[in-house]
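Side project, low priority. Logging it here so it doesn't get lost.
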Amino acid sequence: MARRPQGLLPTERPNPASRGLDTRSIRSIVRVINDEDARVARAVRAQARAIEAGVEAIAASMARGGRLFFVGAGTSGRLGILEAAECPPTFGTPPSLIRAIMAGGPRAVFCAKEGAEDDPVTGGRRIRAAARRGDAVVGVAASGVTPFVRGALLQARRMGCRTILVTSNPGTSIHGAEIVIAPGVGPEVVSGSTRMKCGTAAKLVLNTLTTASMIRLGKVYDNYMVDLRITNAKLERRALRILGHLTGLPPRRTGALLREAGGSVKTGILMARRGLGRAQARRRLAANGGFLRRALEERP
């Protein structure tokens, strides 16, 4: 598909609601930004079917041993990095399972690398070196035309990966993307500043893709993150609260239980509620694919 002129992209058009922005009071500036932000959640909701398809693709890929990659440039790339970094502590996933590829490499996270996003060949090369058949690749591009992302998705599709594009340009299409998630958030308050509404929309979509996929893979019980990895004092306190809520044990008992369970909230819950030892609880969880609910409902 030919690249559309920048002036016609929804992400580049001037926003009539924010005309004369530099002449307004702070109250007026804050209000117009907030009013425009309110459009984002509605735009994301309108993409529910496409997001559902994306979750199904990612969860199916991971259930068969595949991994998840986010690919992007600029703000979009940084959002992918953030999503990949947050999953291990929240869901106990190994760092290798959910990864991010940024145009320009790690240095571009803090300092833009000129021209990096304009290179589709490098995008394809980076995916070819990192991914394999059966993985899921999510390209994030506000405009939908970023060459680095397009090159990565095309290469991923050729390799037999599941491919998803997250964009704020509903009119875009990429041959490499099986699924396109395109919230129409409209032009930015500051024209072309896609770190604003486009970035917010992408963050909401990525949150939903990862969270819903993790739920489908048994990483959540009820609405608790029972696979969280305890890496600091805050997460330890959270783990103890979850154990208390789901076992009914008083605080003075949950610490000992967590230690007996080897730091695993899931294991601790199963030990307390079914009267099992740690090894027995682990075996039962493994036999039920890591799903706590199934393990709890299994008859002795």
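Brief comment: The CA atoms of residues 288 and 295 lie 6 Å apart.
Revisit when time allows.
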